[in-house]
Each structure stands twice: as C-alpha cells, then as structure tokens.
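Q: Fold this one first, please.
A: Sequence and structure below.
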Amino acid sequence: MFDRQLTDLLQRPGARHWLVRLARAVVEAWIVALVFAALAFAGAFGGGRVHAQDESTLGSALLGPGPLLLRGATVIDGVERGDGSGWSPRPADLLIEDGRIAVVATPGEITAPEGTRSLDLTGRFVVPGFVDSHAHVALGPVRVEQQEGGIPTMTMQVDAEVGPRSLRSLLASGVTSARDPGGSTARNIALREAVATGAVPGPVLTVAGEVIDTTAFDGLTVQVTSLEAVRAEVRRQAELGVDLIKLYAGLAPEMLRAGVDEASRHGLPAVAHLLMSTWREGAEAGLHSILHAVPGSPKMLPAEQRAAYMKDLHSTLFLLTWFEFVDFESPEIAATIEALVRLDTWVDPTLVVFEAAAFGDRPEYTVDRPELALAAESLVENWRTSFRFDQGWDEDAYRRAQAAWPRALEWVRRLHEAGVRLTAGTDANNPWTVPGPSFHRELELLVEAGIPTVDVLRIATRNGAEALGRLAETGTLEAGKRADLVVLRSSPLERISATREIELVVQGGRLWCPSDLVAAVPVGAQSAAASRFCGGPGSRTASP
C-alpha cells in the first residue's frame, strides 16, 4: 500500500522539484550538524578555544579588519609570463585588501592606505596556497565483511569528527583549496558550504557526490547496472549541486561514456578511477581527470603478459604488480600517452597512498607515522585493525610491491616528461594517509620520481587551481586574486620538503597559524611554527 502511494506521489507534476527541496533540506541539516561538530572539536582538540574568534595569537592589530601589507618577503608568484620568471624567487611586498591581493610590487613601492596593518616577512618565502586535488575529507571508518564465497562487502561508517578535523589539518598544512572526489553527497556539499560561510575552517572545497560504480560500497558508492542508471545518477547529483562527477573502476567503456556525456550536459567535469576501461578509453570518452597513477587494466599490457598478471587480481597487490608486466615502450602505452596529451586529460597520481601499501610491512610507513596524531581516532583504529590496502599480503607480496615501486615512480615521470598535466592529490583519509602532512609527502615523492622541484611546486599550486577550475581565483600570487598563500621559512625550490616549514597560512586574506588550527604538529609530520609569528605548537601568545 505504502509503495503504491509513494510511486503515485513521485509521478505527480512537480515531484522532482519536491525531491530536490527535500535533499537540500538534508544538506542544510548536515551543515548545522557540522558546525556543532566543529565547535566541539575545537574545544576537545584545541585547548578549549573556538579559533575562528580567537585573536590572541598574532594580536588583534593583525587579525582585525582593514588592509594588510606583507613586507620584505621572497615571493614565488607562479605567474606564467613566458620567460619562467614566475618561478624565480624575487623580493616583493604584497598588499591585501578585502580578502584579495591588491598589489604585488618591489619592496618599498606600495603606498598603503591609511590604517594598513603591516607584517615584516624578511627572510621568509611566500608561495601560492597549495591545492590537494584528492582528499576524501569526510571518509569515515570502513567495515569489511566476508560474505559467502569469500567476496568482501564494505560499508563506510559515519564519524562527524572526521570532516572538521580533516579540514583544519589540511589548512594547517598550507592547503587552501581541495577537491573531494567522492563521498556522501549530502555531507560533502554541507562541508563545502560550511567552509564557504566560515562556519568551519578549511580549504575551499570542490566536491563530488557518491562514486558511481557497478559494485556496492554502502555509504560511498551508488551501484548502477545500466546506461540509463548511470545517467539518472549523474542527473540526481547535478540537481543537488555537486561540482564534479566521480566514476569508478567497474564501469566498462560504454557506461563510462554515458557518465561523462551526462555530466557534460550539466556542465560538470567527470573524473574517474579506471580499471575495466583503459586510460586511453577514458581520455577519449572525455574525462577531465584520471585518478591514481596505477592503471591496473590488463588491456594496457602486452598480450603475452596478461594471463600472468591476471593471477594477481585476487588481491590488491595487482595495483603495483601491474608495473612488473607493463612495457613502457609498447604501442599501447605510446597511444595512451598521446591521447592524454592531445585531449588534455589531467592525471592525479596519489603516490603517497600506494607507498603506504607497498611498504606496509615497515612501521615507519604505517603505525609509527608521527602525523597519526592529527587523524581522527576512529580512522587510525580502523587502519590498525581491519582496513588497509595491503590487507593479507605476505612477505613475498611486499617484496614484489617494493620491487615494482621504482617503476611506478618512473611511470609518473614519463607522463610528466611527455607533457601530461599532473596534480598533487593524496587520497587523504584512506589508510595511513593523513590530511595535510600526506600532501607534503606526495610532493616529495614526485621529486623522487625525477620531476624537477620547480615543476612540482607548479603542480602543487597553479596546476591544482587550474584542474579545479579555479585558476581565475587562486593558484598564483597576482593582483585581483584571492589572498591564498603560504609563508615558509626556506625555499621549496631548493628543497621540496621546505613546504612543511610553514609559519603562516593566509586564506582569503585571513591569517592562520598552524598551531591555531591543530593543537600540536608532530615533529616529522610538519615543522613547528617559529615563535617569530605564532609561538610553538598549541601556543596562544606571540608577538609579531
């Protein structure tokens, strides 16, 4: 009886608009819940402070309203002028007004308005705000259960603490913009709006909704079984207000094309983690970005190697052993790279999350990571006990994964050298991948892969902003753009790990000390803020 009444209701004129209003109401409820969770987290993890209203760290003179002049810094502005000068450090002053960069000029040339506050950054380096292009900011613990026949089922559980905590950790690490490529549509949109309104501190978010796939993962994916089901789910998410569509590994080429086409009809980019479809098929389907530099597809391997490789598909080990069998000089790989370049398909490597799996038998990559103190306790416990990408691996599996690891790095280097555009993403909140510190490890891995440091800094800033469709707003330091920048103690061009040495983060003109966002920044995860501006980790008082 009820099913018939509900069916009748949904067939009435205007029912679709009613459903959208209902969904928006759910999102608004999530925003309220997130605000309360953020306030509770600030009290529990930040010494009882509600940091959004605390003006003691830098002093009210600096945190108050009005223009702000940053003086004497060495600036790497990232502006493409055709001569490479945007990536050459130069002394400059920056004037910030109304949350935007008003002027970037030679030191001493800016005539600041009356009442301008001033901060001396002599000896410090200023770079554009970082962009994490792959952070699952609200991903909760994952429950894995074995069903009959040994087939596992996975369920993502909700922990309201994860979102606000992840966002604060990202911002403390200099990430001023981030892309969340998949999660609960309601939670992701609610987090995006909470950040936009200032209710929750964190990077400006670009979000997808539930991942669209042929398999079920309760709480994370929507299972589809037909082309029309793919299109219907894309339409549903578009109406709810997502910024992009995330397609997944189980989609065959025709289903992938349907998803990309429907997303395009709604003016949305589509990104994907691919397996059943090859990277070339993904690029030719019109994907905006391919996620994870572990192709996995047997069709991308030489025909004579496919049978041997297929034996690994019973385990997550296949993600890395694919590199045992691939021939980087093969016609298929050449055609793949040609398509990626010709069609301007972005690639988001997320090396850091696979490093944790490959070296999962070594505590320094897993349980002994100092940054685990910044992750939600429920996630750390989940990783320790039941959910990790190297689950069930034996000694031989780790040996093979670690032997393949240099080839994974080589693959990313080859993509870069061929002209494929890369972003810096982490897959944050997946096993051992802590939001914030993992971003800096991703940059270090890109350098270890053989990509020049200057190019990695471009990938971390300008590339990320462009891939997210926000280059007009952020990603470089130039007049008119949002004042999103990071103050570092030393040059990241000389040593990419200098991106960890953060003294201040400026987002939309608002100054943040890392110690105001997280109660402690563990040694080894990120260098503690110097006392010149912020005091030590957790400190409330310091003088500029």
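Q: Good. Now the second chain.
A: Here it is, same layout.
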Amino acid sequence: MVYEFKSTDPCDPRDCQIRHPLLAEENFGIKESSSSSHLNGIGLQESALQYEYVNEQVSFNNLDMKLFTAGELEIITRADISEIERKGRLNLLKKITYYSQIYSWKGLLAFYAAWLRKIELGQNKWSDDPSVIELPILTPYVLSKSKFSNSSFKVESKDETIWFCTLYNRNRCTYHGSHQTSIRGVQRTVQHICRVCWKKDRNKLYHPECSSSCPQFPQKKE
C-alpha cells in the first residue's frame, strides 16, 4: 500500500509518495494511491504496526522518531524489497538518527520526503548518498544548541563532543555536507564546520578554516 503526501505548495519536497506503514490513508492529506505503479514497483501491505496505530489518526507530519524508526524497520525487514533499497533505507535511517542531534525533527521529515521524491523521479538511486541534499534542505532547521557534531578532529566540552572534517577544512573533501569517515578504526559522522572558529569561539560556522571569509583567517596559525 502506498501513501502520497499532497502539499498545497507545489515546490514542497514532501509532495511525494511516502511509504510508511504507520500511516492511515484518511489522515492529514495522505491518501492511498489507486495505482499499483509506484516507487520501485513494490506494493506496501499494512503491517502489524498499522493495525495498532490506524485508530490513533497518525499522520506523516505527526510521527515522532520512535514511530518513524519502527515504521522504517517494518519496510527494511520485508522480504520483497531489493537489497539495494534495503541498504539505501538503512543508510538513510542511520543518517536521520545522526542528524536528529543537529536538526529539528520537522526538518528531518522534510529531508526524508525530499530524498524519496528524488528517487521516485529518477534523479537519484537508493545506492546514492542522501547527504547531497543535506545543506539545501536542512540548513533552515539547525538546532540552536546541538549536542552532536562531526569531524576527524575531536573537541570535548562539558555538554558535547564535536567531530569536524579535516579534509573539508583543507578544501579537499569530496562530500557535500556531513558524512561518515573512519577515525582510528571507528566510523564517525563528521560535520563541515570551521575548525578554528569552533576551537576559539565555539561557533559552528560552515566554511573551511582556509577560507578568506573566516573571521579568524588573519590570526590563524598553521
């Protein structure tokens, strides 16, 4: 069963087919598609979670992280989806879990919907990295006090541990936005923030330390 989120805004990234087993067709602008032709041609049947929550009037926009994760795992563990989609959904769910400490939940739902939309339109594949849409979609949703960050350099403070991308600060990173990398044999998610600005003022500024736009550029020591 496939559900389509229909936004009043034609440019809304959520205007896409939302395959989530917790959503009832009558809820909040989500309706069952009359066609069996949809994302990857896979029919989504109602799961046990659907039956449990269908009377709760759960809508896509009202899903919290626990229900969202439970619904995604229902899809991921199905036997009739391809391994490529399974791995792609796991990667997407993992990124959303990491991003939940950086961005608001509303933004992450928009991020999820936008990525499904791109796959539906053939602009991306499940094997692609969803980080490519992080900045355009999630920048307006940055939390004011994030307890999560990323990088191949670690800075500890009272409330948070920050990992920032060393290659980004040298203008050598090939990724767009946050991504994973191996640090001392452990996979970490690293964020594209300025190392110097963070160490000096605890400001998360999205430019490399070698950029002339960095406010610390004249004082920076190699």
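Q: Anything worth noting on the second one?
A: The mean pLDDT is 70.
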